[in-house]
Amino acid sequence: MDNHHTVTPSAFAALVKANRSCRRFDNSVSLCVPDLEALVDLARHTASAANKQPLKYIISTDPQKNDEIFSCLGWAAYLTDWKGPEKAEQPTGYIVVMGDKSVADKFWCDHGIAAQTILLGARARGLGGCMFAAINIKKLKAFLDIEDHLEVKLVIALGKPVETAQIDPLGEDADIRYWRDEQKVHHVPKRSLSDLILKSW
């Protein structure tokens, strides 16, 4: 194995644990198209079912287009009194992940693999992000002039994070809903490892 292409287990674990969904950003810190192209290039190198590689992307760092994309997203289902970040805390970049139906009939989990890789790459660059499936697709397709053979799967919001997220053990009430405290720290309950591994030999 080429040691120039390895990451220590502890460093990778730290990156994964730091990669929490971020919904509040510093809107004064701009992103540029090459930043997002580099993240899509990471996704390009990931696994694809039958190696069909059907995913296509639209990227935006343009303030007007960003506003249009922002208006199409549902921001936090569990935070019922919060409709999304104010302008000063909105993302400065978006990646729209689509499946090309002229390439494949089904997209399996390709878009999930790609989105997680993009978010890990963003976190490694000091950025934060959040993937969205709660999308007004009809409105988004109209704003971005997306052709019919492209199926919108996810939207990834990106920017410089101003939000602190904390992983908490799942409580006895088994309530998995994330919540925000008075200091605006975002708390994310997680099941224990012993709850997830059912058998081992």
Keyphrases for this structure?
three-stranded mixed sheet, 6 helices, NADH Oxidase, 2 domains, 7 strands, 201 residues
Describe the protein's architecture and organization.
- This protein is α+β, with helices and mostly antiparallel strands and 201 residues long.
- It has two domains: 22-162, NADH Oxidase, CATH 3.40.109; 164-200, putative fmn-dependent nitroreductase like fold (Single Sheet).
- Helix content is 28%, strand content 20%.
- It contains six helices and seven strands, in the order ααβαβαβαββββα.
- The protein has helices at residues 9-18, 33-44, 63-70, 110-124, 137-144, 193-196, and strands spanning 55-60, 93-100, 128-132, 150-159, 165-169, 179-180, 186-190.
- The strands form two sheets. A four-stranded antiparallel β-sheet has the order 1-2-4-3. A three-stranded mixed β-sheet has the order 5-7-6, with no helix packed on it.
- Helix 2 crosses helix 4 (110-124).
- The radius of gyration is 18 Å and the shape is globular.
- The protein starts with 8 loop residues before the first helix and ends in a 5-residue tail after the last helix.
- The relative contact order is 0.20.
- The model has no long low-confidence stretch (mean pLDDT 96).
